[in-house]
Protein backbone atom coordinates (compact mmCIF):
# COMPACT_ATOMS: atom_id res chain seq x y z
CA UNK A 1 0.00 0.00 0.00
CA UNK A 2 1.45 3.33 -1.08
CA UNK A 3 1.95 6.27 1.28
CA UNK A 4 -0.71 8.20 -0.66
CA UNK A 5 -3.36 5.50 -0.07
CA UNK A 6 -2.30 5.20 3.57
CA UNK A 7 -2.68 8.95 4.00
CA UNK A 8 -6.21 8.85 2.50
CA UNK A 9 -7.25 5.97 4.75
CA UNK A 10 -5.74 7.69 7.75
CA UNK A 11 -7.67 10.88 6.92
CA UNK A 12 -10.93 8.96 6.49
CA UNK A 13 -10.50 7.04 9.74
CA UNK A 14 -9.54 10.24 11.53
CA UNK A 15 -12.75 11.96 10.38
CA UNK A 16 -14.82 8.90 11.32
CA UNK A 17 -13.29 8.52 14.77
CA UNK A 18 -13.42 12.26 15.47
CA UNK A 19 -17.12 12.31 14.51
CA UNK A 20 -17.86 9.43 16.89
CA UNK A 21 -15.88 11.07 19.70
CA UNK A 22 -17.68 14.37 19.09
CA UNK A 23 -21.07 12.64 19.22
CA UNK A 24 -20.31 10.97 22.54
CA UNK A 25 -18.80 14.18 23.89
CA UNK A 26 -21.90 16.23 22.99
CA UNK A 27 -24.15 13.52 24.43
CA UNK A 28 -22.19 13.65 27.68
CA UNK A 29 -22.23 17.45 27.66
CA UNK A 30 -26.03 17.53 27.29
CA UNK A 31 -26.68 14.99 30.05
CA UNK A 32 -24.13 16.45 32.48
CA UNK A 33 -24.59 20.21 32.00
CA UNK A 34 -27.43 21.21 29.64
CA UNK A 35 -30.29 18.82 30.44
CA UNK A 36 -31.30 20.42 33.74
CA UNK A 37 -31.25 23.93 32.27
CA UNK A 38 -33.39 22.73 29.37
CA UNK A 39 -35.79 21.15 31.85
CA UNK A 40 -36.14 24.36 33.88
CA UNK A 41 -36.66 26.49 30.78
CA UNK A 42 -39.44 24.26 29.42
CA UNK A 43 -40.98 24.00 32.90
CA UNK A 44 -41.30 27.81 33.06
CA UNK A 45 -42.90 27.82 29.59
CA UNK A 46 -45.33 25.04 30.54
CA UNK A 47 -46.38 26.82 33.76
CA UNK A 48 -46.93 30.02 31.78
CA UNK A 49 -49.10 28.13 29.30
CA UNK A 50 -51.05 26.49 32.14
CA UNK A 51 -51.72 29.83 33.80
CA UNK A 52 -52.91 31.34 30.53
CA UNK A 53 -55.13 28.35 29.70
CA UNK A 54 -56.73 28.45 33.16
CA UNK A 55 -57.83 32.04 32.54
CA UNK A 56 -59.47 31.31 29.19
CA UNK A 57 -63.16 30.54 28.66
CA UNK A 58 -63.82 26.88 27.81
CA UNK A 59 -64.52 27.57 24.14
CA UNK A 60 -61.06 29.18 23.71
CA UNK A 61 -58.97 26.42 25.32
CA UNK A 62 -58.88 23.99 22.42
CA UNK A 63 -58.16 26.75 19.89
CA UNK A 64 -55.29 28.02 22.02
CA UNK A 65 -53.85 24.53 22.38
CA UNK A 66 -53.98 24.06 18.60
CA UNK A 67 -52.18 27.36 18.12
CA UNK A 68 -49.50 26.28 20.59
CA UNK A 69 -49.14 22.98 18.76
CA UNK A 70 -48.75 24.76 15.43
CA UNK A 71 -46.18 27.06 17.03
CA UNK A 72 -43.81 24.14 17.62
CA UNK A 73 -44.84 22.30 20.78
CA UNK A 74 -46.02 18.76 21.37
CA UNK A 75 -48.92 18.81 23.87
CA UNK A 76 -50.44 15.85 25.68
CA UNK A 77 -53.53 16.75 27.78
CA UNK A 78 -55.25 14.20 30.00
CA UNK A 79 -57.65 14.08 32.92
CA UNK A 80 -56.49 10.58 33.82
CA UNK A 81 -59.00 8.92 31.48
CA UNK A 82 -59.21 10.70 28.14
CA UNK A 83 -56.27 12.13 26.17
CA UNK A 84 -56.07 15.06 23.76
CA UNK A 85 -53.06 15.64 21.53
CA UNK A 86 -51.95 18.84 19.87
CA UNK A 87 -48.94 19.53 17.64
CA UNK A 88 -46.60 16.72 16.76
CA UNK A 89 -47.15 13.25 18.13
CA UNK A 90 -44.85 11.55 20.59
CA UNK A 91 -43.07 8.51 19.18
CA UNK A 92 -43.54 6.73 22.49
CA UNK A 93 -46.36 7.76 24.84
CA UNK A 94 -45.42 5.31 27.57
CA UNK A 95 -45.57 6.96 31.00
CA UNK A 96 -46.14 5.67 34.50
CA UNK A 97 -49.73 6.19 35.71
CA UNK A 98 -48.49 7.37 39.10
CA UNK A 99 -46.63 10.23 37.34
CA UNK A 100 -49.90 11.28 35.68
CA UNK A 101 -51.77 11.12 39.00
CA UNK A 102 -49.02 13.13 40.70
CA UNK A 103 -49.39 15.94 38.15
CA UNK A 104 -53.21 15.80 38.48
CA UNK A 105 -52.64 16.20 42.19
CA UNK A 106 -50.75 19.46 41.69
CA UNK A 107 -47.06 18.37 41.35
CA UNK A 108 -44.82 18.92 38.36
CA UNK A 109 -43.22 16.24 36.22
CA UNK A 110 -39.55 16.92 35.35
CA UNK A 111 -39.21 14.28 32.66
CA UNK A 112 -36.52 16.11 30.70
CA UNK A 113 -34.30 16.35 33.77
CA UNK A 114 -34.94 12.77 34.90
CA UNK A 115 -34.83 11.18 31.47
CA UNK A 116 -32.37 8.23 31.72
CA UNK A 117 -28.97 8.75 30.18
CA UNK A 118 -28.37 6.65 27.07
CA UNK A 119 -25.09 6.19 25.24
CA UNK A 120 -26.26 6.10 21.66
CA UNK A 121 -29.29 8.45 21.85
CA UNK A 122 -28.86 12.10 22.74
CA UNK A 123 -31.62 12.94 25.24
CA UNK A 124 -32.39 16.24 23.57
CA UNK A 125 -33.80 14.41 20.52
CA UNK A 126 -35.59 11.55 22.32
CA UNK A 127 -39.23 12.03 21.19
CA UNK A 128 -40.84 10.24 24.13
CA UNK A 129 -43.54 11.31 26.56
CA UNK A 130 -41.21 10.50 29.43
CA UNK A 131 -38.85 13.17 28.02
CA UNK A 132 -41.33 16.03 28.61
CA UNK A 133 -42.53 18.51 31.25
CA UNK A 134 -45.80 17.88 33.07
CA UNK A 135 -47.75 20.64 34.89
CA UNK A 136 -51.23 20.73 36.42
CA UNK A 137 -53.86 22.96 34.78
CA UNK A 138 -57.51 23.80 35.71
CA UNK A 139 -59.86 23.82 32.73
CA UNK A 140 -63.56 24.42 33.31
CA UNK A 141 -63.19 23.66 36.99
CA UNK A 142 -61.57 20.25 36.38
CA UNK A 143 -57.94 19.16 36.95
CA UNK A 144 -55.86 18.17 33.94
CA UNK A 145 -52.28 17.14 33.42
CA UNK A 146 -50.53 18.98 30.57
CA UNK A 147 -47.36 17.33 29.23
CA UNK A 148 -45.24 19.51 26.93
CA UNK A 149 -42.00 19.40 25.01
CA UNK A 150 -40.68 21.35 21.98
CA UNK A 151 -41.42 19.68 18.64
CA UNK A 152 -37.79 19.17 17.58
CA UNK A 153 -38.75 17.79 14.17
CA UNK A 154 -40.90 20.85 13.45
CA UNK A 155 -38.32 23.28 14.74
CA UNK A 156 -35.60 21.71 12.61
CA UNK A 157 -37.83 20.93 9.64
CA UNK A 158 -35.99 23.41 7.46
CA UNK A 159 -32.73 23.61 9.37
CA UNK A 160 -32.05 19.86 9.39
CA UNK A 161 -31.70 19.87 5.60
CA UNK A 162 -29.42 22.89 5.84
CA UNK A 163 -27.33 21.39 8.63
CA UNK A 164 -27.32 17.97 6.96
CA UNK A 165 -26.18 19.47 3.66
CA UNK A 166 -23.64 21.57 5.51
CA UNK A 167 -22.25 18.52 7.30
CA UNK A 168 -22.08 16.48 4.10
CA UNK A 169 -20.47 19.39 2.28
CA UNK A 170 -17.89 19.85 5.02
CA UNK A 171 -17.04 16.14 4.96
CA UNK A 172 -16.77 15.97 1.17
CA UNK A 173 -14.83 19.21 0.82
CA UNK A 174 -12.54 18.20 3.71
CA UNK A 175 -11.93 14.84 2.11
CA UNK A 176 -11.23 16.39 -1.30
CA UNK A 177 -9.00 18.96 0.35
CA UNK A 178 -7.07 16.23 2.10
CA UNK A 179 -6.70 14.39 -1.21
CA UNK A 180 -5.15 17.51 -2.72
CA UNK A 181 -2.95 18.13 0.31
CA UNK A 182 -1.86 14.49 0.32
CA UNK A 183 -1.01 14.77 -3.35
CA UNK A 184 1.06 17.88 -2.76
CA UNK A 185 2.82 16.25 0.20
CA UNK A 186 3.47 12.89 -1.44
CA UNK A 187 4.57 14.22 -4.84
CA UNK A 188 7.98 15.53 -3.68
CA UNK A 189 8.52 12.35 -1.66
CA UNK A 190 7.80 10.38 -4.84
CA UNK A 191 10.41 12.45 -6.66
CA UNK A 192 12.90 11.81 -3.87
CA UNK A 193 12.16 8.08 -4.07
CA UNK A 194 12.76 8.04 -7.83
CA UNK A 195 16.00 9.95 -7.43
CA UNK A 196 17.08 7.52 -4.70
CA UNK A 197 16.32 4.53 -6.94
CA UNK A 198 18.41 6.10 -9.70
CA UNK A 199 21.27 6.59 -7.24
CA UNK A 200 21.35 2.81 -6.81
CA UNK A 201 22.42 2.62 -10.48
CA UNK A 202 24.98 5.44 -9.93
CA UNK A 203 22.81 7.94 -11.81
CA UNK A 204 23.17 11.30 -10.10
CA UNK A 205 21.76 13.72 -12.69
CA UNK A 206 18.04 13.18 -12.02
CA UNK A 207 16.45 16.66 -11.74
CA UNK A 208 14.90 17.37 -8.34
CA UNK A 209 12.66 20.44 -8.71
CA UNK A 210 11.58 20.80 -5.07
CA UNK A 211 11.61 24.36 -3.76
CA UNK A 212 9.83 24.47 -0.42
CA UNK A 213 10.44 26.02 2.98
CA UNK A 214 8.95 23.22 5.10
CA UNK A 215 10.39 19.94 6.38
CA UNK A 216 10.11 18.32 2.94
CA UNK A 217 12.09 21.22 1.47
CA UNK A 218 14.78 20.71 4.08
CA UNK A 219 14.76 16.99 3.32
CA UNK A 220 15.22 17.76 -0.39
CA UNK A 221 18.13 20.11 0.37
CA UNK A 222 19.80 17.48 2.54
CA UNK A 223 19.17 14.87 -0.16
CA UNK A 224 20.87 17.06 -2.78
CA UNK A 225 23.83 17.53 -0.46
CA UNK A 226 24.00 13.80 0.28
CA UNK A 227 23.71 12.95 -3.42
CA UNK A 228 26.50 15.36 -4.26
CA UNK A 229 28.76 13.81 -1.63
CA UNK A 230 27.91 10.28 -2.74
CA UNK A 231 28.65 11.27 -6.34
CA UNK A 232 32.02 12.68 -5.31
CA UNK A 233 32.71 9.59 -3.23
CA UNK A 234 31.78 7.35 -6.16
CA UNK A 235 34.05 9.28 -8.52
CA UNK A 236 36.89 9.08 -6.00
CA UNK A 237 36.27 5.38 -5.48
CA UNK A 238 36.46 4.71 -9.21
CA UNK A 239 39.62 6.81 -9.48
CA UNK A 240 41.04 4.98 -6.49
CA UNK A 241 40.31 1.56 -8.01
CA UNK A 242 41.75 2.70 -11.33
CA UNK A 243 44.91 4.06 -9.70
CA UNK A 244 45.35 0.96 -7.54
CA UNK A 245 44.91 -1.27 -10.57
CA UNK A 246 47.44 0.77 -12.53
CA UNK A 247 49.95 0.91 -9.70
CA UNK A 248 49.72 -2.83 -9.13
CA UNK A 249 49.72 -3.70 -12.81
CA UNK A 250 52.77 -1.56 -13.60
CA UNK A 251 55.31 -3.32 -11.32
CA UNK A 252 53.77 -6.70 -12.12
CA UNK A 253 54.21 -6.04 -15.84
CA UNK A 254 57.82 -4.95 -15.25
CA UNK A 255 58.53 -8.05 -13.15
CA UNK A 256 56.96 -10.27 -15.77
CA UNK A 257 58.99 -8.65 -18.56
CA UNK A 258 62.34 -8.99 -16.79
CA UNK A 259 61.56 -12.55 -15.71
CA UNK A 260 61.07 -13.29 -19.40
CA UNK A 261 64.47 -11.72 -20.17
CA UNK A 262 66.08 -13.83 -17.44
CA UNK A 263 64.74 -16.97 -19.11
CA UNK A 264 66.44 -16.17 -22.42
CA UNK A 265 69.58 -18.21 -23.05
CA UNK A 266 72.97 -16.58 -23.43
CA UNK A 267 72.52 -13.54 -21.20
CA UNK A 268 75.55 -12.42 -19.24
CA UNK A 269 75.87 -12.50 -15.47
CA UNK A 270 75.94 -8.71 -15.33
CA UNK A 271 72.64 -8.54 -17.22
CA UNK A 272 71.16 -11.14 -14.91
CA UNK A 273 72.23 -9.11 -11.91
CA UNK A 274 70.80 -5.94 -13.46
CA UNK A 275 67.47 -7.65 -14.25
CA UNK A 276 67.30 -9.17 -10.75
CA UNK A 277 67.92 -5.75 -9.20
CA UNK A 278 65.03 -4.24 -11.20
CA UNK A 279 62.76 -7.12 -10.17
CA UNK A 280 63.80 -6.58 -6.56
CA UNK A 281 62.98 -2.85 -6.80
CA UNK A 282 59.59 -3.47 -8.35
CA UNK A 283 58.83 -6.13 -5.74
CA UNK A 284 59.71 -3.66 -2.98
CA UNK A 285 57.52 -1.04 -4.68
CA UNK A 286 54.63 -3.51 -4.83
CA UNK A 287 55.17 -4.43 -1.17
CA UNK A 288 55.16 -0.75 -0.17
CA UNK A 289 51.95 -0.17 -2.10
CA UNK A 290 50.12 -3.08 -0.45
CA UNK A 291 51.37 -2.00 2.98
CA UNK A 292 50.09 1.53 2.47
CA UNK A 293 46.75 0.28 1.13
CA UNK A 294 46.37 -1.79 4.29
CA UNK A 295 47.22 1.29 6.33
CA UNK A 296 44.54 3.28 4.50
CA UNK A 297 41.98 0.56 5.24
CA UNK A 298 43.02 0.65 8.90
CA UNK A 299 42.63 4.44 9.03
CA UNK A 300 39.20 4.37 7.33
CA UNK A 301 37.76 2.03 9.95
CA UNK A 302 39.66 3.42 12.94
CA UNK A 303 37.70 4.78 15.90
CA UNK A 304 38.82 7.03 18.78
CA UNK A 305 38.53 4.09 21.18
CA UNK A 306 41.43 2.24 22.84
CA UNK A 307 43.81 5.21 22.85
CA UNK A 308 47.13 5.22 24.66
CA UNK A 309 49.70 7.77 25.73
CA UNK A 310 52.30 8.06 22.96
CA UNK A 311 55.79 9.46 23.56
CA UNK A 312 56.32 11.35 20.30
CA UNK A 313 59.99 12.16 20.91
CA UNK A 314 60.76 8.47 21.38
CA UNK A 315 58.85 7.54 18.22
CA UNK A 316 60.74 10.12 16.15
CA UNK A 317 64.09 9.03 17.60
CA UNK A 318 63.29 5.39 16.76
CA UNK A 319 62.22 6.28 13.21
CA UNK A 320 65.37 8.32 12.59
CA UNK A 321 67.48 5.39 13.83
CA UNK A 322 65.73 2.99 11.44
CA UNK A 323 66.27 5.35 8.49
CA UNK A 324 69.92 6.01 9.32
CA UNK A 325 71.07 3.90 6.37
CA UNK A 326 68.95 6.02 3.99
CA UNK A 327 70.49 9.25 5.30
CA UNK A 328 73.98 7.80 4.96
CA UNK A 329 73.31 6.53 1.43
CA UNK A 330 72.57 10.09 0.25
CA UNK A 331 75.13 11.68 2.58
CA UNK A 332 72.42 13.81 4.21
CA UNK A 333 73.10 15.94 7.25
CA UNK A 334 70.48 15.41 9.96
CA UNK A 335 69.46 18.00 12.52
CA UNK A 336 67.00 16.78 15.17
CA UNK A 337 65.75 18.82 18.11
CA UNK A 338 63.27 16.67 20.02
CA UNK A 339 61.60 18.05 23.14
CA UNK A 340 59.80 15.38 25.21
CA UNK A 341 56.10 15.48 24.32
CA UNK A 342 53.16 13.13 24.79
CA UNK A 343 49.74 12.79 23.16
CA UNK A 344 46.77 10.43 23.27
CA UNK A 345 46.50 8.31 20.14
CA UNK A 346 47.20 5.15 18.22
CA UNK A 347 50.93 4.53 18.41
CA UNK A 348 51.09 2.29 15.33
CA UNK A 349 49.31 4.82 13.10
CA UNK A 350 51.36 7.76 14.37
CA UNK A 351 54.57 5.78 13.74
CA UNK A 352 53.40 5.43 10.12
CA UNK A 353 53.11 9.22 9.83
CA UNK A 354 56.73 9.84 10.89
CA UNK A 355 58.01 7.07 8.60
CA UNK A 356 56.16 8.52 5.60
CA UNK A 357 57.26 12.11 6.25
CA UNK A 358 60.91 11.24 6.86
CA UNK A 359 61.03 8.83 3.92
CA UNK A 360 59.71 11.56 1.63
CA UNK A 361 62.26 14.02 3.03
CA UNK A 362 65.10 11.63 2.22
CA UNK A 363 63.68 10.68 -1.18
CA UNK A 364 63.34 14.23 -2.48
CA UNK A 365 66.55 15.65 -0.95
CA UNK A 366 69.61 16.36 -3.08
CA UNK A 367 72.73 14.26 -2.61
CA UNK A 368 74.70 15.76 0.26
CA UNK A 369 71.80 17.92 1.41
CA UNK A 370 70.24 18.16 4.85
CA UNK A 371 67.03 17.34 6.73
CA UNK A 372 65.82 19.21 9.82
CA UNK A 373 63.43 17.63 12.33
CA UNK A 374 61.97 19.60 15.25
CA UNK A 375 59.55 18.66 18.05
CA UNK A 376 58.34 21.50 20.29
CA UNK A 377 55.48 22.05 22.69
CA UNK A 378 53.58 25.31 23.27
CA UNK A 379 50.82 25.31 25.90
CA UNK A 380 48.59 22.39 24.91
CA UNK A 381 49.86 22.09 21.34
CA UNK A 382 52.66 19.95 19.95
CA UNK A 383 54.44 21.03 16.76
CA UNK A 384 56.43 18.53 14.66
CA UNK A 385 58.21 19.88 11.57
CA UNK A 386 60.15 17.91 8.95
CA UNK A 387 62.09 20.09 6.51
CA UNK A 388 64.20 19.08 3.55
CA UNK A 389 66.19 21.28 1.20
CA UNK A 390 65.49 19.25 -1.91
CA UNK A 391 63.63 19.73 -5.19
CA UNK A 392 60.43 21.13 -3.61
CA UNK A 393 57.03 21.48 -5.29
CA UNK A 394 55.20 24.10 -7.29
CA UNK A 395 52.16 25.87 -5.88
CA UNK A 396 49.80 23.68 -7.92
CA UNK A 397 51.58 20.50 -6.87
CA UNK A 398 51.41 21.54 -3.22
CA UNK A 399 47.62 21.98 -3.48
CA UNK A 400 47.22 18.36 -4.60
CA UNK A 401 50.00 16.83 -2.50
CA UNK A 402 47.59 15.25 0.02
CA UNK A 403 45.38 13.61 -2.62
CA UNK A 404 45.57 9.86 -2.95
CA UNK A 405 47.87 8.64 -5.77
CA UNK A 406 48.93 12.17 -6.67
CA UNK A 407 52.51 12.45 -7.93
CA UNK A 408 54.50 15.53 -8.80
CA UNK A 409 55.97 16.13 -12.24
CA UNK A 410 57.94 12.98 -13.08
CA UNK A 411 60.43 14.89 -15.22
CA UNK A 412 61.27 17.20 -12.34
CA UNK A 413 61.31 14.49 -9.67
CA UNK A 414 63.88 12.56 -11.70
CA UNK A 415 61.98 9.28 -11.79
CA UNK A 416 61.54 8.98 -8.05
CA UNK A 417 59.19 6.05 -7.51
CA UNK A 418 56.37 6.11 -5.01
CA UNK A 419 52.77 5.13 -4.48
CA UNK A 420 51.36 8.62 -4.11
CA UNK A 421 49.75 7.61 -0.82
CA UNK A 422 52.26 8.72 1.81
CA UNK A 423 51.03 12.27 2.47
CA UNK A 424 47.40 11.23 2.06
CA UNK A 425 47.84 8.56 4.73
CA UNK A 426 49.65 11.02 7.01
CA UNK A 427 46.87 13.62 6.76
CA UNK A 428 44.09 11.10 7.44
CA UNK A 429 45.90 9.73 10.49
CA UNK A 430 46.60 13.20 11.90
CA UNK A 431 42.99 14.33 11.33
CA UNK A 432 41.81 11.11 13.01
CA UNK A 433 43.75 12.28 16.07
CA UNK A 434 42.11 15.70 16.00
CA UNK A 435 45.19 17.45 14.63
CA UNK A 436 46.15 19.07 11.35
CA UNK A 437 48.99 18.87 8.88
CA UNK A 438 50.33 21.72 6.76
CA UNK A 439 52.74 21.87 3.84
CA UNK A 440 54.97 24.67 2.61
CA UNK A 441 57.07 24.14 -0.49
CA UNK A 442 58.69 25.90 -3.42
CA UNK A 443 60.63 24.53 -6.42
CA UNK A 444 64.32 24.23 -5.60
CA UNK A 445 63.82 25.49 -2.04
CA UNK A 446 62.70 22.26 -0.39
CA UNK A 447 59.56 21.26 1.49
CA UNK A 448 58.46 21.78 5.08
CA UNK A 449 55.69 19.63 6.56
CA UNK A 450 54.23 20.74 9.91
CA UNK A 451 52.07 18.55 12.14
CA UNK A 452 50.05 20.02 15.03
CA UNK A 453 48.66 17.71 17.73
CA UNK A 454 47.13 18.15 21.19
CA UNK A 455 49.43 17.31 24.07
CA UNK A 456 48.62 15.21 27.14
CA UNK A 457 50.25 14.66 30.51
CA UNK A 458 53.59 12.92 30.40
CA UNK A 459 53.70 9.21 31.01
Automatic annotation (TrEMBL):
Subcellular location: Cell membrane
Membrane topology: Multi-pass membrane protein
Predominant location category: membrane
Ranges where the HAMP domain occurs: 183-235
Classification via PANTHER family: HISTIDINE KINASE, SENSOR HISTIDINE KINASE CPXA
Task performed by this protein: Member of the two-component regulatory system HssS/HssR involved in intracellular heme homeostasis and tempering of staphylococcal virulence. HssS functions as a heme sensor histidine kinase which is autophosphorylated at a histidine residue and transfers its phosphate group to an aspartate residue of HssR. HssR/HssS activates the expression of hrtAB, an efflux pump, in response to extracellular heme, hemin, hemoglobin or blood.
UniProt name for this protein: Heme sensor protein HssS
